[in-house]
Design a protein that fits this description.
Structural class: mainly alpha
Distance between the termini: 43 Å
Order of helices and strands: HHHHH
Helix content: 55-70%
Number of domains: 1
Radius of gyration: 17 Å
Largest sheet: none
Shape: elongated
Number of strands: 0
């Protein structure tokens, strides 16, 4: 029996790892905003709006993570769409918390996740990522 193995490129590996981390982060912050406290007193102010938006980010990033790992032909498209949605959501979160200087964890989270999302979008623009994630010889347009 001949076994063939498919090895993903470093670009797609980095996209995969970062996307899993992003989805996990949005899941945790969604729970925190919906009032669930974690050990060691980790909590966030209750905010249904932030909890729902971050929950939606978790959902779309989880779907694109599935598509990447299952090697679906639509992986590139959903990953780009999910990251654009998440970037817009984070920008909304930054805008809403501009006048709330007391929440340091939220301040740091929004900025770190925004940079991470931008890095993944930049990696998705490479020809290697487009080819391996199901989109060939096309640009964002």
């Amino acid at each position: 029996m001949i076994e063939t193995t498919y090895r993903r490129s470093t670009v797609v590996l980095v996209i995969s790892v970062l996307t899993v981390g992003e989805a996990f982060s949005f899941f945790l912050f969604s729970l925190l905003h919906l009032g669930i406290q974690f050990p060691l007193g980790i909590s966030e102010p209750f905010s249904t709006g932030a909890g729902v938006v971050e929950g939606l980010c978790w959902l779309v990033l989880t779907i694109c993570t599935y598509a990447i790992f299952a090697q679906k032909t639509w992986a590139w498209s959903i990953t780009v769409a999910a990251h654009i949605f998440a970037v817009l959501s984070v920008l909304l979160g930054i805008y809403t918390t501009l006048n709330d200087p007391g929440d340091q964890a939220n301040f740091i989270f929004h900025r770190v996740i925004l940079v991470t999302l931008a890095v993944v979008l930049a990696l998705l623009a490479t020809s290697r990522a487009r080819a391996e994630l199901g989109r060939r010889k096309r640009s964002f347009t």
